[in-house]
Amino acid sequence: MPLVSMKPVLREAMEQGYAVAAFNLLDFGTTKAMIRAAEELNAPVIIQASTKTIKYFSHKEVYSWVATLAEDSPVPVVLHLDHCKDLEVIRKCLDTGWTSVMVDASELPFEENLALSRQVVEMAAKKGVHVEAEIGQIMGVEDDMVVAEDESHLTDPAEAERFCKELDLAAFAAAIGSAHGYYKGVPKIAFDLIKEINGRTKTPMALHGGTGLDEATIAQCIANGCAKINISTNLKHVFIESFLDYNKAKPNDFEPLRYIDAQYQACKALFKSKIAEFGGTNRAAELLAKAA
Asked: What pLDDT sits at residue 18?
């Protein structure tokens, strides 16, 4: 089926009390594994790419991978641009057919962030696309952007309410104590803050920094309003380690396709486990029924 918009997918997830898994692709193989994992669980999936990945492969090439694979798939697939500060990259993705974009102006003062995010919302609306935006700064490393713990700050609920009232967003990313990358020590997630922001904004919240959070923490985040959960770092580790593990097990095998398949199978297993953990299993049919 054609690529779908993120807004109705996340609205349905928020209303039904589950979250849609959002994975950052690395290549064609991981993209294929994401869609096949979603098909095997009859689940919607968000496939996203960082600005760095797009600049390496090109926005057109990434689009072609996802659109081609989604065309023959029975499950809803969203193609999302993750954490982007470059308006030209956003414009190119919108023109090519991407069905969701995220503008990240979170390092700017509130009014400047709001103004820039509004500009992107207006750009996207011309293409029938909705936007994810962020206030507060989420700590950690994402796409070579580093936010130290002492530089991060939790999102102000009053600012979140105004931000989401003035912008028609598909998803709202907030700093609630999670972090990009693997955690050092026990993460301190502000569950009450998630609940308050969700109550004020009525906008699906995107949980950034899903890698490394245990199942109980994830479940509580979903219960309090998180409808999109991002997984990137976990995938990077599985992608590299599965290749190395195959080489260690069969050091004399120089058939590339067997290495590629080992990566594919390991990544698909990760995707299936996260989709199931977030509650996405068998949600595709009900989502499509409501859209019909």
From this structure: 98
Q: What is the DSSP letter of 210?
A: -
Report residue 252 as tokens.
Answer: 């004399």
Any idea of the CA torsion for 92, 94, 97, 101, to the nearest 10 degrees? 110
- Classified as helix, coil or strand, 271 is helix
| Active-site choice (27, 72, 82, 143) | 82
Helix (H) or strand (E) holding 111: helix 110-125
Q: How confident is the model at residue 138 (pLDDT cuts 50, 70, 90)?
A: low
Residue predicted with more confidence, 290 or 40: 40
What tokens appear for 196 in the block?
């308050």
C-alpha to C-alpha distance for 44 and 207, rounded to whole angstroms: 17
What is d(CA 245, CA 242) in angstroms, rounded to the nearest whole number? 5
pLDDT score, position 184: 57
pLDDT digits (tens, 9 = 90+) for 221-230: 999 999 999 9
d(CA 37, CA 67): 16
Whether 156 is a known active-site residue: answer no
The DSSP annotation for 160-215 comes to HHHHHHHS-EEEEEE-SS-EESS-SS-----HHHHHHHHHHH-SPEEE---TT--H
Structural domains of the chain, ranges and CATH numbers in brackets: 6-286 (3.20.20.70)
Q: Residues 277, 239, 50, 48: what is their CA dihedral angle, to the nearest 10 degrees?
A: -40
Q: Specify the DSSP class assigned to residue 137.
A: B
Asked if residues 82 and 50 have their Cβ atoms less than 8 Å apart, the reply is: yes
Predicted TM-score (pTM) above 0.90: yes
Q: Distances in Å between the alpha carbon of 11 and those of 22, 157, 288?
A: 15, 20, 13
Provide the residue type at 106 as one letter: S
* Other Cβ atoms closer than 10 A to 231: 23
- Bridge partners (DSSP) of residue 131 are 101, 169
d(CA 163, CA 167): 6
163 in Cβ contact with 135 (< 8 Å) = yes
